[in-house]
Each structure stands twice: as C-alpha cells, then as structure tokens.
User: Which sequence fits this backbone?
C-alpha cells in the first residue's frame, strides 16, 4: 500500500509547490495529522415521512494535504450530502449524521459544538456551490460578501479587508477589481459570479475546499476557465480540493484520486489512471462507456446505463448496482460485496465479479 | 493589473453607477405619477405635522369669544373674516385645530408603525427562522390576536387604562398608540415569517452558513434586507388604517384629551352643526381622506416599484 500515492502526487505536482516553500511556511500551515481529512464510516440519513433515506451509508475515504479528490456518480448517489456532512451543513431536520467520524486536520469535527464549527467553516473549509446565480445575496455588494468571511474569521480592519478583497478579486481574474467592489451580483455574469464564489471560498486561506459541482451551471468554455482557475489557485494556496462532479472528464483532468459513489456508497476508489485504465466495477464501466467519444458514429444514440438507482429507504443486503448490472450472479443478490483491494495499490472496488476469485477478468 | 486596467478602461465605456435595489426601485417609483402625488402629499402632511403650530394663525386652544358672541354664539363660517376656515362654537380657529390634528395623525401614523415593527418583525423573524415548535407557538399567539375584534380590544384597553398615568401620557395618545399597535402587528409578523420561510431555503443562505456567518447575522444582514420590500409596502399601507383607527377612537371619545383635538374629534364636535355649519365636519373629513389616499397611492407605487417580478421592465 505504501508509496502507491506517489505517482499521482507527482503528476499533479502539489508536492512540487510544497518543496519550494521555506520550512517556516510549512510550519505555519500547521499540519496536525498525516492526512488533512479522514472520513470513516460516515452515514448520513434523512428521516422523511416515507422512511429513513440512507443518503450516505458507511462512507470512508481520506484526503491528503493539497490533494484533489474527485467524488463522482450520478444524481442522488450521495455526493453532495457527503460534502455537506463534512461541512456539517446537512439540513436538520430531516437530515442527520447518524454515525461515523470526520477528522479534519486532527480535529474530530463531529464532536465540535456549533460555534466551534462556525469558526472552522469559511476559515479552514471553503465551499463552492453549484449555482453561482443563486448563491450570492442579491441585496449585498460583492465586496461586502467577500469581506464577510474575512471579517468573520481574520479580524482585519475595514481597510485591510478591502485590500484583501481587491487582491482576491484580481486573483480570480476579475478586471478592475477595486471598481467592482460596490457592484451587486446582478451586474456580474454567471462565470464572473462563480469567480466571486471562488474568491469567497479562498478568502481565508482554507486548507480544504469543497467544490460541489462548481461548473455544472456554466457553459463549456466558462467551465474550462473556472476549472483551470480552481486548479491553479488550489496549487498556489496549497489547498486540498474535494471536487464533486458527475462529469468524468472533469474528474480525469483535475483529480489525483477519484471515488465513485453509487446509492450512498463508495463503489470504487483509485487514482485517475487506475480508474480510467482498469475500472473494476460494472458501474464505473457504465459511466465511462456513457461518455461521448470522438470516434462515435454520427447519429448514434449516446450510451446509457439502463434503469434507475435504487431508492435508499431500507436498501436490501445485496449489491446495490445488481438490478442494473449485466454481469450479476446469485451471490450479487444475496450478499453485499465489501470494498476490497484490486492489485497491489490502493485501488479498491465493491464488486463480486471483479474480485480475484470472481468471474470477470479485466 | 495596472496595465490591464488601462486597456480595459480605454476600450469599455464607463460603466453605469452601481445600481442598487433601491436605486432601481426609485427609478421605477419616479415614473408612477400617482405614487409621486402620494409622496408629495405625504411630505406636505409631514411638514404640517412638524411645523403646524408655527404656521398656524392662532394657538389651537385660544378662543375668539368676541367674534363668536358677535355671531350669536354660533360657529363662524369659513372664508370670511380673520379665520380662514372659520371657528367652532367656542371660537377656536379651525385651521389651527386641523394643523394640530395633522400632528396627531402623523404621530399616530409613525409611532403605531414603529410599535408594529418592533413587535411584528422579531416575532415573524424568530418564527420563520427557527420554525418547528417555536413557529407553531408564536403563530398560534398571532392567530389568537388576529381573531380578536380590533376595535373592541382597543376600546377595552383604552377604557381600562384611561385614568392611569400610562393612559394620561402624551395627552392620552400613548395609550392609543400602544392599543392600535398591539392588535396590528400580526399582519407584519405573518408577512416577515412568510418571507423568511421562503428565503431561508435559498442557496445564498446556505453559502453564508458555509462561510461561518452566525444565525443572527444571516437573519439581519441577509434575510431581512431581501424581504424588506413587502414589509415597507405593508407599513405604508398600514398607516391609513392606523390614522383611521385613531380617528374612529377620537370620534367615540377615546384617545387625545381636550383641549387638543384629532381630526376624528373635530368631526364628532362638528356633527352637531352639520346642517348649519357643515364645514366643521367637512374640513377634517377632507383631511382624513387626503391623508388616507396619499399613503395608499404611495404604498401601491412602492409595491410596484419593489416587486422583483417587474425588475428590468421600466
């Protein structure tokens, strides 16, 4: 297991950024644990009139300092709820984190009281939301909304805060930043607003950014710019990113490691290379297969995965993907597979068929 | 950055000044003639209330006994002699008394709304923000108060406290303010609650939470400013109701104590002479009507101006 991370880290090179820093810098970053984020056995359930929806069920993963981790899967598979759980923003009621442990920078954040958590949010953990059009308050100026987090957490003077806001706005590529502080969100385009959201997320030099489908509401050209911006700034600020997306192309371009989620569970995890070269779970094949390809014949339909994800109210003790799986056998219906290793690396998958004694060799 | 600024600045025309919600609303309000008429009348009313005693020809309680006696102890009619709008049967100048009445009406208009806002906004905000059991409790209380017959409650309260120091304060007006305010805050509370219920689900609230803004700040800095349009409209449209309620109370003899008189008192006193001297009833009635209409016009205009659905349309 050890040493298997190294290839990926070198590839996206946050490690290089780390090396050019002075020891003092590294010390000021205050590492308190070997991993920035360790999520183990996280279960978040929603208590609805129809029953308990197990939106996130026994999810475990970790995220190193400066690393970018992708969380992919289709709608309703628990990606966003995982991110909300990490920020402890799950709407309650009806949602509640029922079990598990989330250790962020050595702190078990599920044990923090709400005030302590508030000091962590925005300061240590930034959040980029899906829809920049509705995530900014229409009645407050852009300058105020960026400064809000800074004032909240850094205790800067008005002047210093304004300077920092201007600097952040230019960093995220908004021209004439100082002139635009007094503008309102409706005077910004969608892409510009997402840049503002990124500036807000980065405003207090967080150690972790939770990016929940940051580009879904934007068109493709802007998407590329925003992703490039997130990547560049997370390298520059040495921020770890948990990138939630349903777009495997984005995950491939941005992430060091990727977790594939299905029906509230992680079904496969590995480096980008492992996942894209040797996916070990029929669901991941389906996802990869449904990407449009350059060599597709014109006029052909896009490939899809047949069926729908299961309801997450009292799911059976069986493989959750089994009803949609072309390769299923009896054991898939009888018992749920564990997340087990594939090969010598940290590549893991939750599938009977691709286990060493399974019936599929890929 | 500097080079970028000049390049961009040279190419792009100077952007229009940051148009806040309020600037937008004002530009729409300005185009509404009735609302502007209402606004002008409201301002005149405010000026009359503020400077009435200074511009009044006589103090409101001074009797011109000589003139009344010369008129066979009858009220003096308008537009003759030194009293522009005539006098009542005690020889008190009607114009001066109307101006003093304006002061009372303006005070009622604003103090009552202040009472309503101080009770209604926090109650609505707490109910809407916390929801659940707190919401239920507060809304049942407002339901009870809403179900109360307003006027009966105000009359009961006024009669019960009339002889106490509280009832005598501000010439008896304080009691009226509080009584009207106590029954009228429910509308604003419900409005604020509804606004917050809708707004607290918005994503910018979640975004504010995600950067660690405290609940209190989210409510005061993020939610209330977004919901303030309907509140302003409700307050503006509530003012005529308050003025009318005060006049009604004055008409049945509750509220401001003699020798001061509100417009309602003047109507009551004038109706004894309604055949011979209708001006004693007519002029205060006209004052009330103008006050009500001007606030209503302004309120309607504000509602249109602050309506987000009209945003962009001019």
Assistant:
């Amino acid at each position: 297991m050890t040493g298997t991370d190294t290839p990926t880290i070198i590839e996206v090179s946050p490690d290089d950024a780390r090396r050019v820093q002075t020891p003092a810098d590294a010390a000021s970053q205050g590492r308190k644990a070997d991993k920035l984020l360790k999520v183990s056995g996280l279960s978040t359930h929603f208590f609805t009139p129809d029953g308990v929806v197990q939106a996130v069920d026994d999810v475990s993963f970790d995220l190193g300092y400066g690393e970018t981790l992708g969380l992919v899967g289709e709608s309703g598979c628990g990606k966003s709820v995982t991110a909300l759980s990490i920020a402890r923003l799950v709407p309650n009621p009806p949602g509640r984190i029922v079990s598990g442990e989330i250790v962020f920078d050595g702190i078990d954040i599920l044990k923090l009281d709400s005030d302590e958590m508030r000091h962590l949010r925005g300061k240590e953990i930034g959040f980029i939301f899906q829809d920049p059009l509705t995530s900014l308050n229409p009645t407050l100026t852009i300058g105020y909304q960026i400064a809000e987090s800074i004032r909240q957490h850094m205790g800067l003077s008005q002047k210093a805060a304004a300077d920092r806001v201007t600097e952040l706005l230019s960093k995220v590529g908004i021209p004439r930043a100082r002139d635009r502080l007094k503008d309102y969100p409706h005077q910004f385009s969608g892409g510009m607003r997402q840049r503002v959201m990124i500036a807000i997320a980065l405003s207090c030099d967080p150690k972790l950014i939770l990016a929940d489908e940051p580009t879904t509401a934007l068109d493709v050209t802007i998407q590329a710019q925003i992703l490039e911006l997130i990547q560049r700034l997370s390298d520059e600020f040495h921020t770890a990113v948990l990138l939630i997306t349903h777009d495997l192309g984005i995950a491939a371009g941005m992430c060091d490691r990727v977790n594939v989620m299905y029906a509230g569970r992680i079904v496969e995890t590995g480096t980008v290379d492992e996942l894209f070269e040797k996916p070990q779970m029929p669901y991941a094949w389906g996802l990869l297969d449904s990407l449009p390809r350059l060599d597709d014949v014109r006029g052909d339909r896009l490939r899809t995965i047949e069926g729908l994800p299961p309801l997450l109210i009292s799911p059976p003790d069986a493989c959750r993907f089994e009803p949609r799986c072309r390769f299923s056998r009896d054991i898939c219906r009888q018992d749920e597979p564990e997340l087990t290793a594939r090969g010598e690396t940290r590549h893991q998958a939750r599938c009977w068929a691709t286990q060493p004694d399974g019936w599929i060799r890929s | 950055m500097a080079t970028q600024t000049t390049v961009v600045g040279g190419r792009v025309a100077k952007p229009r000044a940051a148009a806040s919600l309020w600037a937008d609303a004002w530009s729409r309000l300005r185009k509404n003639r009735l609302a502007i008429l209402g606004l002008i009348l409201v301002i005149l009313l405010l000026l009359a209330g503020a400077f009435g005693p200074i511009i009044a020809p006589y103090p409101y309680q001074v009797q011109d006994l000589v003139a009344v006696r010369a008129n066979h102890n009858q009220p003096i009619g308008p537009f003759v002699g030194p009293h522009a709008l005539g006098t009542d049967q005690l020889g008190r100048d009607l114009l001066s008394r109307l101006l003093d009445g304006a002061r009372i009406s303006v005070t009622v208009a604003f103090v009552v709304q202040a009472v309503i806002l101080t009770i209604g906004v926090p109650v609505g905000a707490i109910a809407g923000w916390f929801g659940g059991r707190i919401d239920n409790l507060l809304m049942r209380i407002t339901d009870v108060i809403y179900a109360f017959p307003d006027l009966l409650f105000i009359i009961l309260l006024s009669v019960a406290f009339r002889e106490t120091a509280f009832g005598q304060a501000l010439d008896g007006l304080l009691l009226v303010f509080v009584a009207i305010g106590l029954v009228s805050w429910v509308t604003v509370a419900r409005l604020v609650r509804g606004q917050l219920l809708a707004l607290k689900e918005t994503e910018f609230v979640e975004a504010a939470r995600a950067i660690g803004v405290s609940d209190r700040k989210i409510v005061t800095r993020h939610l209330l400013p977004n919901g303030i349009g309907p509140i302003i409209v409700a307050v503006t449209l509530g003012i005529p109701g308050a003025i009318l309620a005060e006049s009604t109370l004055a008409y049945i003899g509750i509220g401001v104590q003699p020798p001061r008189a509100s417009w309602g008192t003047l109507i009551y006193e004038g109706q004894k002479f309604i055949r011979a001297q209708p001006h004693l009833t007519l002029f205060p009635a006209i004052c009330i009507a103008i006050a009500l209409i001007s606030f209503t016009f302004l309120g309607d205009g504000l509602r249109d101006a602050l309506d987000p659905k009209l945003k962009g349309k001019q």
About this structure: Chain A has 14 helices and twelve strands. The CA atoms of residues 339 and 350 of chain A lie 4 Å apart. Residues 6-66+73-124+207-218+242-349 of chain A form a domain with the Rossmann fold fold (CATH 3.40.50.300). The first strand of chain A starts at residue 37 and ends at 48.
